[in-house]
Design goal:
The protein has 307 residues and is mostly helical. It contains 12 helices and 2 strands. It has a two-stranded antiparallel sheet with strand order 1-2. Helix 2 packs across helix 5 (104-110). The longest helix has 35 residues, at 224-258. The chain is globular, with a radius of gyration of 19 Å.
Length: 307
């Protein structure tokens, strides 16, 4: 009996560790999206870029998904459609259009909003509850998002909002909702199958919109590799790791760790795009990181072990 308990304890600890590592690696991969995507958007339409990225992500997981036999009920097929339309069609349009109109550094910082909205929908949908310190942490992260979005720039008592930043925030709201939908789906459907179907459906919707809208397929040969890297690593693998992390350690901890993508994204933007950062951005990321620290250190949550 003692041996069984020790084995179960080792299994649980192993899954938790894998969950933490998966979330951190996902943060690194998603953190590079703004830096890689920003130069491409100078000549490629955001809608076209989104469609190619998600079709690439879907095709990447097709070989592994094809080996998985799973019966999808009407309920879960409906949820997959909802996830595809929201998370793989609408959200990426907002994100890349916002990235085109903003800087890679600001976009990386604002991507932290996904943490807040993932937690918000977890509270709303799954009736999860935070300790008081958890609500303080969420408020701090939102405060950082507010600082980056407005830059504390007042114009006739109205915030001079950067439309690009607003679009990025809208994308994080939608992705926050989608993350919780994916959590439900992943209970019954293998993650590879989920991402394949979601990405292919969303990418097909986007590509159909590109064709109907008459958007030109203006892509230079040297842009193909960065676009493929975005699809495979920035979205496919990062989403795969993130969903696995959710299954092992829950939405709150996984999303909090994913917020580290802002740190990596800011570093990548400075190193590779030579973007400068202002004092407000430094303050914003400090506030966000402190909020993440509070969430990660003091907010307790039952671990969700992968079955």
């Amino acid at each position: 009996m003692l041996g069984l308990r020790l084995n179960y304890s080792s299994f649980v600890n192993s899954n938790i560790i894998v969950g933490y590592i998966s979330a951190i690696v996902a943060a690194v991969l998603f953190g590079c999206v703004s830096t890689i995507g920003k130069p491409i958007l100078s000549t490629v339409d955001p809608l076209l870029l989104s469609s190619i990225i998600y079709l690439t992500a879907g095709l990447f997981f097709t070989p592994s998904a094809a080996r998985i036999s799973s019966k999808i009920t009407k309920k879960y097929f409906f949820l997959i459609i909802v996830s595809a339309i929201s998370g793989a069609a609408i959200a990426p349009i907002f994100f890349f259009q916002g990235l085109k109109m903003s800087t890679a550094a600001d976009t990386a910082l604002l991507a932290n909003g996904e943490t807040v909205f993932s937690i918000f929908f977890a509270l709303l949908i799954f009736r999860e509850r935070l300790r008081p310190v958890g609500y303080i942490a969420v408020t701090l992260i939102l405060g950082g998002v507010f600082l980056v979005t407005t830059n504390l720039d007042f114009n006739s008592s109205i915030f001079s909002l950067n439309i690009g930043n607003v679009l990025v925030i809208l994308s994080t709201i939608i992705w926050g909702f989608d993350n919780n939908i994916c959590k439900i789906i992943a209970r019954q459907i293998h993650v590879s199958k989920l991402i394949q179907l979601k990405a292919l459906i969303g990418g097909t919707i986007l590509m159909g919109t590109v064709v109907i809208s008459g958007i030109p397929f203006d892509i230079h040969s040297e842009q193909l590799i960065p676009i493929i890297l975005l699809g495979v690593f920035g979205f496919a693998i990062s989403l795969y790791l993130y969903i696995h992390s959710i299954k092992r350690i829950g939405v709150i901890k996984a999303s909090s760790l994913l917020s580290l993508s802002a740190v990596f994204g800011l570093i990548f933007a400075i190193i590779f795009l030579h973007e400068s950062i202002g004092i407000n951005q430094v303050i914003a990321i400090s506030v966000m990181l402190f909020g993440i620290h509070l969430m990660y250190t003091y907010e307790k949550k039952d671990e969700i072990i992968l079955k």
